[in-house]
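Build the 3D complex.
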Amino acid sequence: MHNLSGLARAAAIASQPEARVSELRQESGRPIIGYLCCFAPPEIISAAGAIPYRITGRPGEPTAEADAYLEPYGCSYVRNVFTQALKGRLDFLDGLVISHSCDLVQRLYGIWTYYHPFPYSRLFNVPHQVTPWAERFFKRELGFFKESLEQFTGQAVTAEKLREEIDLANRNRALIRELYQLRLKNPPLIKGSEMLSLLLAGGWLPAEEFNTLLNEALEEVEARSPEGTPRPRILVWGSLLDNIAFYRMIEEAGGEVAADDTCIGFRLFEKDIPATGDPDEGLKEHYFVNFQCPRTDRGPGTGRFDYLLERAREYNVDGVISYIISFCDPHKFDYPDLRDYLKEADFPMLLIDDNYSFTPAGTIQTRLQAFIELLAR
Amino acid sequence: MSASEMRRAKRHLETTRKMKDLLPRFFMRTFERRFSNEPLAWCMVGVPPELLKAFDLLWEWPENFGTLCASRQVAPQFIKTAEGDGYSPELCTYVTNTLGYCKLWTESGEPPAESPMPGGMGNPTMLLGSGFICEPRYKWFQTVATRFVDCPVYSSDPLAPPWDVDPHDPRIANHYKELLREDLHGQVEFLERHTGRKLDPGRLREILTLSHKALAYWRDTLALRQAIPCPMGSTDYFSAIIPQLYMVGEEEAVDFYREFYHEVKDRVDRKIGIVEEEKYRLIWFGLPPWFNLGFFNYLESLGAVFAIESTYNVGDWFEVEINDPLEAIVERTWQRAVKMHDYGAEAMPELCNPAVFGGFVGSRMLEEVVEQYHLDGAVMHLTRSCRAVSFGEVHTKNRLAEMGVPSLIFESDMADPRLWSDAQIKTRVHAFIETLAGRDPGGSQG
Ligand code: SF4
Ligand code: SF4
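Done.
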C-alpha cells in the first residue's frame, strides 16, 4: 500500500483501515483510541499523545451476534459496529470514545463498556439545545475529556499542543474544501465515491499523513480535464454513510454526487475550527455550535435548513437523495419538513430508508435510476 | 389487526375506580378556562408540573393524550394520517399520534371527531418540550411548531453522567447541576415572558409541599406491593399516575394518594390479593400496550401478578429542602440521577428522568427489587416505536438470568395495535408460565 498515492492509496486503505494506526502503535507505543461521531474532538485525542481512529461498520454484514446484548429494534449501524466489537475486530483499540450524539449511540456506550471493557473509555456528553449554558457545559465537558485522556496517556494536553493539532486538522479541512470546489465543475472533476473514500481514509490516518494524501489527490484531480457529458447532479443528505457503496450505486444509476450533508462529509469540513485564544472556545464553536446534525435542536421553522438550500444552490444540484438508516430518529423526524422545504425551492427529493445494508440492491438501484431519469428530463 | 379480547382492563381498587368521577370534575373546571383565551401549554414529561401550576397555567400532555387515544382505539387513525405525511412508522407513535391529530385539527379548524376528549388538546400558546429520556420529545415539538402551530417552544435539556463517571465527585456534581439549574432558570424566564406573570416563589413552595406530600404517599403505596399476596396490580398502577400529572399541587391530589395508600394498606393488613391464588409475582418492563390493558388481567387469570413496574413512576420522593423552591427542583432531579447511578445504570444513562425509574436496567437495583418484591419472573414489552424505553431489556434479561429469574420479552407497541397478535402473544405467555411453573411448582408462596 506504501507505493500507492492519492486516490489509489485512499481506496486501498479501506480494505484494511486499521493497518496504518496499528503500525504507528507498534513504532511509537502510542495508544489507539476509537471514536464514534464527531462531537468529542479527535484533535484532543492526538494532543494527548494517542492516535484517534474513526470506527466504521461493515454494511450488510449480519448482526445476529448483537442480539444477545441489544434489542432488534434500533439503528442497524449501531448494531453493526457493536457486532464488529463482539467479533474481536476492534481488539486493536486501546480506548473508546463515544459522544452523546443520538440516543442509540449514547446508550450503546454503557452496553459496550459493560460487556467489553477497554483500558480507557469515555462518554462525551453533549446537550441538545444550543443555549449559553449548554455551551458552557460543552466547554467543561471538553475539560473533563482532556483530563481523562491525560490520566490515561500521561501526557499533558497543553494549549500549544492542541493548537498545533488544530492547525494540522484545519489544513486537512482547507484541502478538502479545495477538492469540493472542483465538484462545482460540470461534470465534477472528482466523483462522490472518490471524495468519500478520501474522507474515510482521513478518519483512519493521523492528520499529517492525511494532509499528504489530500495534496496528492488534489494534484491528481486538478490535472484532470472535464470528461463526458454532464449528468444529473445530486446532493446526498442523511444519516451516517461510512462506505462508498451507496455513492457508487448513485453513480451507476447515472447520477453525479456533487455535494453532501452527512456525518463523514461536508458537515465536518465545511469550516475551519476557529483560531481562538482559548482553543476550547474554537472547538466548542466547531463541534457543537456549528456542527449541523439534526440531533441538535435548532428550534422550530425551516430556517434550520437554510444552509442546506444554499449548498444545493451553490453546487447547482438537480435533486436531493436522502439516505436514512432505519430507526434513526433525528433524521426521520426532519425528513418531511426538509422534503417540503426543498420542494418549495424546486428541489425534488428521494428517500432511501435502509437498514445499513444497501439491500435489496436491485430495488434501490431501480428507485435511484427512476429518480435520476426524472432529473435528467 | 383484529379486535383483541384483551382490550378492556379491570381495575381492582376502589380509589382508582373512583377516578372516573374525580377526573371529569377536574377537567371541567379547567375546560372553561380554555375558551377564555388563557395561555395553554402543551408539555412533556420532564417539565416540572409544579412550575406550570405556579404560573397558574393550563396544560396538556400530548404523551398522555397518546395513551388515551390508544386506549380508546383511535390512535391508529391519527398515526396513519401522520404516516401519510411521510412520518415513518418507526417513529414514536405518541408523536405520530399528535402529528396526525394536529394535521386533522389544523386542516378542518376543529378538534378531530376521533379525539377522546371533548375539545381535543386545545390551542396551545406555547410548547414545553424536554430532552428527558429521548430525542423524540424535543423533535416532536420542533415539528409541531414547524408544521402546525406557530408558537414559542422551550425544550428543557437535562443531562446526567454516564455510569462510569462518579456523581459524588463535587466537580462532576457541579458540572451537571449547573446545567440543570441554568436550564430551569431558562424555563422560568420563558414562562414569565410568555405568560406575562412573575414566578411567585411562595406559591411554588406551597405547590411543591403538596406535590411532595402526594409523592410520599405514592412511594409508600408502591412499597406496600412487596406484601404477599400483592395488594395492587398494574391496571391500578397505570391509572393512578393521572392525578399527579394533572392535579399536581392540589389538595385533592393529596387526598387521592392518601386514600389510595390507605386502601392498599388495608388490603395488605387483610391479606387481600388481586387474584384468588397468587402463583407468580412478576416485574413489568416497558410501556404498557394501552390499547390492550386487559393483557395484565389476562396474566392475572393465570395466577401471575405484577408487583412492580419499570415505567411511569410519576416521581420518586426525595427529601429535599424546599426553602428555595427552584433549587429544590434541581436537587430533586439530581438526587434521582445520583440514586440511579449508585445502583449502576449502564444501559440507560438518561438517569435523571422522572418517568422511568427503570433506568435501573442491569444494575444492583434489580437484585434489590427481586428480593424485596419476591419476584419470580419478568415480562418485558419491547416497543418497536419507543426504543428509548425498551433499550436495555436484553441486558436486563441477561442480568436477571444470572440471578435465576426468567424473563419473557415480547414485541408490540404502546399505541399502535398493528403489531399485536393475541394468538402469538398468548402462546408465548403460556410457554413462559410453564417455565415459571416448572421452576418452582409451589410458586412464590411456597
Ligand atoms: S444513523 Fe441515526 S440513529 Fe444511527 S447512529 Fe447515526 S444519528 Fe444515531
Ligand atoms: S420515551 Fe418513548 S414513548 Fe416516550 S416520547 Fe420518547 S420515544 Fe416516545
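Chain A touches chain B through 54 residues (CB under 8 Å).
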